Amino acid sequence: MPNDGQVGALTGRPVQDMATTVRGPRETIGRGREADIIAWGDGRVLKLYLSPDRRGDAEHEARVTAAVHAAGCPAPACFGVAELDGRTGVVLQRLDGPMLLEVLLAASNPGAVLDRLVELQAEVHRHEVPGLPALHARMSRRIERVRPVAGRLANAALEQLARLPEGSSLCHWDLHPGNAVVTGRGLVVIDWSGTATGNPLADVARTLFLLGDAPLMDDTPEPVRRRVAEIRAAGVGRYLDRYCEITGVAQDEIAAWRLPVLVDRLVDGIPEERDLLLRLAGAS
Length: 284
Prior knowledge:
The strands form three sheets. The chain has a five-stranded antiparallel sheet with strand order 1-2-3-5-4, with helices on one face. It has a two-stranded antiparallel ribbon with strand order 6-9. It has two domains: 8-93, Phosphorylase Kinase, domain 1 (2-Layer Sandwich), CATH 3.30.200; 100-283, Aminoglycoside 3'-phosphotransferase, Chain: A, domain 2, CATH 3.90.1200. The protein has helices spanning 55-70, 100-106, 110-125, 135-145, 147-150, 152-163, 200-212, 222-247, 251-255, 258-265, 274-283; strands spanning 28-31, 35-39, 44-49, 78-84, 87-93, 169-171, 180-183, 186-189, 196-198. 45% of the residues lie in helices and 15% in strands.
C-alpha cells in the first residue's frame, strides 16, 4: 500500500541503513505485485520495492514491522532498509517454510487450513501497538480521494464509516493466505506495510474480500483458478463463522464494514479490481 500519510508517531524511530551489507551475486527468490524478494546474507531477505521512489514506504514498513515484532506479534524480525540498483527495500528475517497459500491449495481439508488463518487474525487483533496510524481516519481520507470514481458510493461509505466505532486493535490490513508463512514456530505474518490501529472488524471485512472476491493475478494457471473457486465456495463462510465463534461478535457487525472497506480498496488502484469493487459496493 502506498504511503498515505500513514507514518504516524513511529517516524521518530531511527531506521538503520544497510545498503552496503551484502556484495556479489544475489538470488531473487520471489516476486509480488510491488516487490522482489532477494536473498540478503545469512538468514535474511531483502524485500525490494519494484518502483525506485519508495524510500519513504520502505522506511515506514521497517519501523512498523520492527514495532509489531517487538510487541510479540507473529512478525519477522526487521533489520532496517537497504538500497540496490537505485531501489530501496526492507531487510527482514528469512522465514523457512511454505506460504499458507501453498498448503491451502494442496489441502484435502482447506477449511481446517483457513481455521489456522482466522485464529491467527484473532491473535493479531489482541495486540495494541502505540504509534501506528489510525485506521478510521486513514479510511476517511482515502474514501474522500475516490469521490470522482465512486460518486454516491463514496458518500454512502463515508456516512457508514462515521457511524462505526474506531477501536484500538492491531489491524494488519492485508491478511490472506499469501501473507502467512508456515514455520517451525507456527504461522508468521509478512507484509505489515498497511498496518494500522483500529476496529478489528474492519480488518476482517477486508480479509473476507481478499479471500472471497479479489481477482487472481492474470498469470494464474487455470487449475489453480478452479481450486481457488472450490475453496471460496466452501471456506469463506466458515472463516466468518469461526471468527465470530472465537470473538463473540455478530456477523452483521462485520458486514457493516463491507461498504467502507470496498470503497477504500479502490484507492489501491488495481486495474482488474475497479469494476468489481464498484459492483460489490453498489450491492452492499
